[in-house]
Amino acid sequence: MTSGVINYLDGVSVHPYRGDLYPETAPYYTPTSTPNDRGYHWLDSLITLYEPAGKSIPIVCSEWGYSNSSLSIQTQADYLARIQLFNLYDGIPLSIWYDWTGGNPSFNIVNSNLIPKLPYVTATTLTRELRGYQMRGRYDTGDSGSI
Q1: Which class for 68: exposed (0-12), middle (13-18), buried (19 or more C-beta within 10 A)?
Q2: Residues 11-43: tens digit of each pLDDT
Q3: Total of domains in the chain
């Protein structure tokens, strides 16, 4: 990072796939993390260390999804909502779900005939219902075991 390239960046794009881990683990280093997948907080600390004074370089989630080959379609839909909400909570201004209708069909949110699957309905409902609202914080459930 000492090359100075950070002076020319407007954002840092990541694909924070978590395998079988919950979406809420994305900010944190996990025991199964590889050196290139240590979480948003680790990456943000590097950006902050090297970014020029007065410049704030955001992290954007440019691809992330869960396959319904190992999860139910309901869990896939739930994870899509949790990814969007938790990323907003953690200051990630952009989240793109993988995949619309290409690549691996088990990730798709519409089928090959463009008929919406449950994750698509979840995304559109979440967007419609929360339009105009802002993320202010996280509700404390009193469960110290939750992330």
Answers
A1: buried
A2: 999 999 888 788 988 888 655 656 556 789 888
A3: 1
